[in-house]
Structures are given as structure tokens and as C-alpha cells.
Amino acid sequence: MFNSLRPGGGERSGAHLNVLADEELMQLVYRGNAAAFEVVYDRHADAAYSLAMRMCGQRSLAEDVVQEAFLSLWRSGARYDRNRGSVRKWTLGIVHNRAIDALRRRAVRDRRVVVDETIEERVPARERTELEFARRDEAREIREALQQLPREQSHVIELAYFGGMTHTEIASMLGTPIGTVKGRMRLGLEKMRAALGEPGEVVG
Amino acid sequence: MSGGQHSERGDDVAAYVLGALTEDEARDFASHLRECAACREDVAALQHVADSLPSAVPQRSAPKELRGRVLATVASEAELRNAGRRPEAGSRARAPRERWQWRFATAGLALALVAAVAVIAFSGGQSRRVIQAHVSAPGASASLRVVGTRGQLQVEGMPQTPAGRVYELWVQRGRHVHATDALFNVTSAGRASVGVPVSLAGVRAVMVTAEPRGGSPEPTSAPVIVATLG
Q: What's the gap in Å between the CA of A5 and the closest CA on chain B?
């Protein structure tokens, strides 16, 4: 199927690679194809960096996190399993884990943990493809689902997911019992799940 | 104890998918998941909600410099991983010698321009020096210890060679590159210590490439380590 692409070479095949789905590109990445990796990077780096910036609040740390995440994707592409979701979600999952590690390593707890609604969205000017529209719809739905939660529920979800805090740390910061914190997380996620309906993933 | 009843663990599901358990707790919960189908179902149901949270953040453009750094690292690792894989027959095929020179030139550009540091001392009439080598693999380092005309190459942090390949040591005299009998692999920590099996008299550089198992009579890929004796 990929006979036309030399393993690992293919820098001159960049245009052809652009038409491949992420899952197909990952097979080439696994075989050491740097050009395929480049396409995967360009498709998901903005989303990865956005998540890392939201979690780390600091450009240098966010860049380190994204770099580590993509290099781990490059070095262990074999571990991608399409049953676990899209390449994008898998990549963002790696970024999330790396950012949590970085935040937990950091001695000074100067985390940005509140969604800054005033941040201007700097979406790169690119073609407004169908995929982009679908992603923006999905993003809007998720933001709305999060905003519609009682503040106490969205707060613990944000502190945990974006702030990288453990349930114990959240409980002690809020002066709330651990059981209550976990309960709010569960209720919040279940409400979001009901609002979002069944998983219908935007695949790119 | 990794078990526990499902009813006791129900509230851990949300904390688990949000990454809010400590490492130990997460490991413990993961082993509970292997035994508890009900928790597995709960995790599956809530995981996709947690996975969709990144869409809620303000979107930014990743810095161009970051792209440059990541792709440069990947390009240099790809060079190593694919070292020796011959281009398919076709218009681009080159004679081995020509291909070698061509690849050497590109690798020379890719190698980080780290100034070679030579420490020279004299002991019992024999010169001793340590030459820092240029290494294309990120995070790796190599040095050549020279005593008189003998040399010992020490490498740290080198990636493993791809399956079926081995590192081969070469010496350059004048414009010619000569094979040595030195073939080696690195430890899981990326270390190796390799004696140069020939005299360094008249040698301009010591190099390493990744070659098919058994070694090659002439390099088939770009060098990943170059120590210049000057």
C-alpha cells in the first residue's frame, strides 16, 4: 500500500502524505518516516500546545511538554492503538500526562488553574476545512457543557484536569472533604457526558 | 491490596480519568480495573468526556521555533534509524562511494557544531588527549581518548541500533575511509567503550556508522559519530 514511499525517506513525498489519514501516517512513523511524522506534527501541534499552555501557563514549560510528547510519539509510535481513539486524542493524552508530570515536579505551585476567558483565541489562519468546522463545533459544545455545570463541579474538574492537582491537594486547598471532591468530579463528568451524548469523534 | 469492592471504588473513576489520583493510587486503581468489569464500564463511559476537555481551551499557534527543534531532532534520529537502508533501485541510485560521500556531506551539516575540545598532556613521552566527538543523536556524547597512536572511543547516551544492525568504527586517512574490525552495540543505557584496533598514525578522523550485522567493507550510511584528530 505504501510501496511508493521509501521507508524513512519520503521527504519528497510530503504532498502525497498530506492525503493520508492519521492512522496510516502512524504506521509510517513507526517505520521511521520523518516526513510522515512532520505531517502528524503539523496537524496536531497547535492543539497540543494550546493544552500545554493552558496547563502550564508558561511558554517555556509548555514548549518542553509538547516537545517531549511529540518525541515520545515519534519514538514509540508502535504503541499507538487505533482502538483507543484518534491519533489526536492519543497525542493530547500524552501531552496531558507529560504536563501533569511537569506540574507535579515543579516545586513552586504557581499554577494557572482558572480558565482565562479573556484570552484572545489565536487560531492560525488556515483554510476553514470541514474538519476545522467540526472541531470548532465540538469545542463549543464541550465548553458549553463545562460552563453549564454548577461552579463547584466545574472547578474541581478544572483543578484536576488542567491544574494537574490530585484529589487530596484539591480537598486541602478548598477545605472540603476528599469524598466530596471525588463526588463532585464524578457528578460533573456524568452531567457533561449526558450533555454531549454518545461519543462521536471528530477524526482527522 | 489492589482489590476492593466496586461500591468502594466508584468515586475513584472520575478522579482516575481526570488524572487526579497520585501515581500509586492510579496504579492501584488500574489493577482493580483488571478485576472489576463494572469499574471498567464506568471508566470507558467517562474517559471520552475527559479526553474531550482539551477542546475547551483557547486555541493557540505552536511556536515556529518549537517546530524547528522537534523536526530537527526527528530528522537526525531518522537518519540513524534508517542508516544503511539503501535507496530503492531507480534513477536516484548512486555508486556506493558516491553515495557515501553525498551522505557524509549531508550528515556533516546535520551534526551539531560543537567545538572539539582537546586536552593534551604528556606522560612518559607519549601524548595523551581527549577529543570530544561530534554526535548526531540528540543527548548522546562521545569522546576519543588518544594515548600515543592508540585510541579508545567512549560513547554515552547513544540510541540502540535498529534490529539487524551494528555500529561500525572507521578511520579516515587522507581522503580515504578505511574499515576496522571494530563492530559494537551499546548498553541499554547507551554506553560503549571501544578500542580503535588500528594505529592512529596519520589518521584524520575516527567515525562510526550503523551497518548491517557483520559490518560493511565501506560505509553504507552517514556517520553518527565523528572525532576529528586534526
A: 10
Residue whose C-alpha is closest to residue B106's, from B65, B76, B140: B76
pLDDT band at B110 (very low <50, low <70, confident <90, very high): very low
CB-CB under 8 Å, A196 with B52:
yes
Which of 3.40.50.2300, 1.10.10.10, 2.40.160.210, 3.40.50.410 is the CATH number of A129-199?
Answer: 1.10.10.10
- Is the Cβ–Cβ distance between A13 and A4 less than 8 Å? yes
Smallest CA–CA distance, residue A134 to chain B, in Å, is: 11
Is B1 a domain residue? Answer: no
- Whether the full predicted model's pTM is greater than 0.90, yes or no, is no
What pLDDT score does B1 carry? 41
Integer CA distances (angstroms), A141 to A89, A158, A185, A192, in order: 17, 16, 19, 10
Cα separation, A177 vs A105, in Å, equals 25
